[in-house]
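ERR on first pass: missing label on line 2. Operator R.T. fixed the label and resubmitted. Corrected input:
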Amino acid sequence: MNFFIKSYGCQMNLYDSQRIEDLLLSKQHSKMEDIEKANLIIFNTCSIREKADDKLFSDLGRANLLKQTSKEINFIIIVAGCVAQSRFQDILKRCPYVDAVVGPQDIQNIPDRIDDLIQHRDMDTLVLTKLDPKDKFEKFNNIFSFRSISEFLTIQEGCDNFCTYCVVPYTRGREFSRSVQEIVSEAKNLISRGCKEITLLGQNVNSYNGLGDDGKNWRLSQLLWELSKLSGLKRLRYTTSNPKDVDEDIAKAHRDIPILMPFLHLPVQSGSNSVLKKMNRKYTREKYLDVVNMLRDYRPDMAFSSDFIVGFPGESDSDFEDTINLVKRVKYSQSYSFKYSPRQHTPAAKMDNQISEKIKAERLKVLQNLLNSQQSEFNKNSIGKIEQVLFVKKGRNSNQINGRNEYFQAVTVNTDKAEIGDISNIKITNVSTHGLIGELV
Ligand code: 5AD
Ligand code: SF4
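pass 2 clean. output:
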């Protein structure tokens, strides 16, 4: 069939879409960039915040129009991913034209099930929503197409933390770590195809405990050491870390592993102890600052990014001030911040003292202004310095090439002497809206 696939969510959602794509390509289906040319439409959804969730239903309306007016005998619409898992009953009720609803731990079954759907066209909507990821990665092993110089590799998925705002434990299930052998073999495969930078992915990478070759369960720091030995790999990153699980071994890894980049996404969510407690984050602001300081002790140039939620139920002006003060202490190089969005099944959605949209919007603006000014401060510090940049794609104009420095800041260079995949010494000459400008030295 001619398939079109859209991703709505996080990097892991994108990784899953790429694996669905690889499986379909291996079964001789063809990928379409234009939804209007497809007769198999897959929406790989996200339910982290309400906006992502709403977008699905408007896209589904459009897909149904295409289905109704299509001359194809077989026209299949599949909703995959986190909304499929958390709201499959709504989808069945509101969108009876959807042929299959497939949660994140069942996506590997999509290609086989397409054959069923074609053979039994009048069957009820197929619902696949098991929460056990074991056979998912088995099916993915060894069918990888190479996409870019910088690739993601899922090492762990699911979450056992149950932060009270978060839908992930209900959409991706309990924590599961892939074995060291599987991860190393996927990494070697990527490197052999030209990949230079790997970002290890997981909801909670710091609680990685996959089976090692020695029969023991390995920690993230051991896995990082193992991957750092692979020849041809130039840069290693990992995301996302929960501050409560970052230990001294990780800080030492940042000091001692040359290809492990001095940048860490370390979501704090809030700087108020009372809010952190209601969020069930299991750390305090003091512990968070200790973790930041420990990492900077071992690796003085360590840069940090974070996620923030403003307007969590019960957040007072003084709680919000605590967040602002913490931001001023840490000095982030970049960040993502969101208004709290109540999610189905989560305890916070039922808490008293929900905050008004107006206050959420005001607080978000104040926070984002501060975070943006910190990012430009951070980048201004690079002006005049020589930084190592890994080039990942061509720029908008001819002669322009885009890459990232070690601190994950975007760098644009005007040159025809650098190739995608090169790591070059770049003299930073200026800052742009979202990054840096430099020249080859
Ligand atoms: N409302 C707003 N933001 C949320 N996040 C997760 N759940 C919610 C929610 N209910 C944010 C957190 C998380 C990031 C991926 O999304 O900041 O780290
Ligand atoms: Fe969205 Fe979370 Fe699912 Fe990723 S894991 S797709 S962020 S709901």
